Amino acid sequence: MATEQRPHWSDVLKKRTANSIKDERSEDEKKSEETELFTKYYTEWKEGSQREQSYKTIPRFYYRLPAEDEVLLQKLREESRAVFLQRKSRELLDNEELQNLWFLLDKHQVPPVSGEEAMINYEAYLQVGEKAGPKCKKFFTARVYAKLLHSDPYGRISIMQFFNYVMRKVWLHQTRIGLSLYDVAGQGYLRESDLENYILELIPTLPQLDGLEKSFYSFYVCTAVRKFFFFLDPLRTGKIKIQDILACSFLDDLLELRDEELSKESQESNWFSAPSALRVYGQYLNLDKDHNGMLSKEELSRYGTATLTSVFLDRVFQECLTYDGEMDYKTYLDFVLALENRKEPAALQYIFKLLDMENQGYLNVFSLNYFFRAIQEQMKMHGQEPVSFQDVKDEIFDMVKPKDPYKITLQDLVNSCQGDTVASILIDLNGFWTYENREVLVASDNDSSSTADLDDT
């Protein structure tokens, strides 16, 4: 039986309009019914076919992650991610293709050279792009050319700068793929255990770490991983975005250890080098007098020049993770990273949390006085005349110039670029002494350099 077709709302309105001569209702009543009918049919139309069609056009944007008991779905997801990363890896330029690109660039250079740099203009640049193959297509765009265009009078770019740009891009993509292989969750971040596995498997590829004993590997990995998490995970979530790892310089420092001829100075300044890791771990062992693998407050008090105040160390053991009142190696690493990098915002955040005893979000005169009293007591113990707190307080506020003249926030310390000096004044007698005698020390350094110049002549 055929379904009776419903008349369209416009036809109904026309019919009613045609019969309006016989209708004895008032104009207002007719208009009211007309509006009511229009609203009814329009609403049906709007909520009916059009809504169904628009809903079907919305792209899917959420995909539920497999639950722990959905083993098959988890395996499928892992396998699909691995295939995807392999495909992305094949899209990158290999060594042979990079060599071919360099050959083409060198062949199409446009004279004259700029200093010692071979140059190429836009026309030749496009020609190389056509010959270099599909993998190189994304590098030969007007945008990339404009980025590398500086002050050449002929409108050319340096071949070496362009090639280095390509190499850097390829390296970044290779590294991202390499890190993503350790992203067990597949969410674009690494947990502490993921990064530990990555660095552990990276050790054999770094010639500068050849001399490390295998028994030290776990301590080395812990030392390396802590730097990433201390600076890149300020909220202590236990995970770091792969994007943040690539954006910072830490991975560059770590992979610098591939250089077999790395200078001694570079090794000493590189946190990830074998000498640096052995130095930090050696200090920890030297402080651990009772050899129980942990540090008490008394043992930690001998850190550095043994001039950290007792009040500050009390705060360290109150706020930081301890086990029966003693500090383990991981907590010690955070402590060392904070004190050795006092200019960095993450280090200042660590120290500020210790100075902000009442968790108010700012330091006031009482806070400053509380910590500086310990400095004054140390000065008395060493037979020195204590400095007036009022003078120090005024100097600190003058240095920081906080938005609120009575409160110093963490952001005030960071913005002032004097946060490291303020921290040193409040927690370390040696740091305060260095600040107090800065003019004498500068004069002494100048005298030493002058003497050295005379000796050279």
UniProtKB/TrEMBL annotation:
Residues 1-14, 21-33 have a biased composition (Basic and acidic residues). The keyword 4Fe-4S does not apply. SUPFAM superfamilies: EF-hand. Pfam families: EF-hand_13. It comes from the Eukaryota. Transmembrane segments: none annotated. PANTHER family: SERINE/THREONINE-PROTEIN PHOSPHATASE 2A REGULATORY SUBUNIT B'' SUBUNIT GAMMA, SERINE_THREONINE-PROTEIN PHOSPHATASE 2A REGULATORY SUBUNIT B'' SUBUNIT GAMMA. This is Serine/threonine-protein phosphatase 2A regulatory subunit B'' subunit gamma. It comes from Amphiprion percula. The lineage of its organism: Eukaryota, Metazoa, Chordata, Craniata, Vertebrata.
